[in-house]
Design goal:
Elements: E1 2-6, E2 11-12, H1 24-37, E3 44-48, E4 51-56, H2 58-67, E5 72-78, H3 81-95, H4 100-112, H5 118-125, H6 129-138, H7 143-150, H8 156-163, H9 168-181, H10 185-201, E6 216-218, E7 225-227, H11 238-258
Parallel strand pairs: 2-4, 3-5
Antiparallel strand pairs: 1-5, 3-4, 6-7
Length: 261
């Protein structure tokens, strides 16, 4: 860990990050203290592959940019790219209130992009493993569910229950019911389980297949194979039927003689 004086332009702010937030009154007090005493606690950066990434102190950094200062002091920690997000997750969580939706994004990134499981994230951040695993599941939820969590319409328990539904459409439908009826987490979990049970009982839809081709029937008189729809069967008496059969026999005999040597 080193204290270094750098130019603001040398610092990269990750798009996916956790930032502690304050109400408007506390934010004004913070800005007034910066003007009166300057920055007493330097922002923290992780240096990875020669680049500086801001992991803590976004508000302080923004005040420096606003003031137009040419340089600022930062605490520099060496690390890999994944350390940018792990350190950001840890330091901002310790500072106070953070948006759960931002934590979902960071944990989802560590899981999907860097292959860190809940145990490894717990070792590096101290967050409860069960909490981390819930956020991992929520990171796969629909945009509407994550947005409702961001707006604090629902809590982690609600978002986790909704995330268990297998499709985003089902999650969004259930979210609309949650907004209407304001279920407790326990009640919502029961409704989700009921929905999953009903879905499991519905037999799968058999995929559409083309019908088999119609069978072919051999004509008794001409001996040709034709479609069943082209077979005629008029009412015929025994005498006429015998005459037809004999006529066909004679015709075939004559054809055989004509074609002989």
């Amino acid at each position: 860990m080193k204290l270094r004086t750098v130019k603001p332009g040398e610092i990269n702010v990750p798009e996916t990050r956790v930032t502690s937030f304050w109400d408007s009154e506390l934010l004004e007090i913070f800005k007034a203290s910066i003007k009166a005493m300057g920055i007493l606690e330097p922002p923290v950066c992780v240096e990875s592959d020669g680049k500086l990434f801001l992991v803590d102190g976004l508000h302080r950094f923004e005040e420096v940019l606003h003031s137009g200062a040419a340089t600022l002091q930062v605490v520099v920690l060496p690390g890999k790219e994944e350390d940018v997000y792990l350190t950001n997750l840890l330091l901002n969580r310790l500072r106070g209130k953070t948006k759960v939706s931002e934590m979902v994004q960071v944990i989802g990134l560590l899981w999907k992009e860097y292959g860190l499981n809940s145990e490894k994230i717990q070792e590096r951040t101290g967050l409860p493993r069960d909490y981390i695993e819930r956020l991992m599941v929520i990171s796969e939820a629909s945009e509407a569910v994550r947005g409702a969590l961001d707006e604090e319409e629902i809590g982690v328990g609600h978002a986790y229950a909704l995330s268990k539904l297998p499709t985003h459409d089902m999650q969004d439908d259930m979210l609309r019911q949650q907004r209407l009826y304001r279920f407790r987490v326990k009640d919502l979990e029961g409704l989700v389980r009921q929905t999953l049970d009903i879905r499991a009982e519905v037999p799968p839809i058999t995929p559409h297949t083309d019908p088999p081709p119609p069978p072919k029937i051999r004509c008794f008189y001409c001996d040709q194979e034709v479609d069943l729809a082209k077979i005629a069967n008029p009412a015929t008496c025994i005498t006429c039927s015998g005459i037809l059969v004999e006529a066909v026999r004679v015709a075939r005999s004559q054809d055989a003689v004509a074609g002989g040597p």
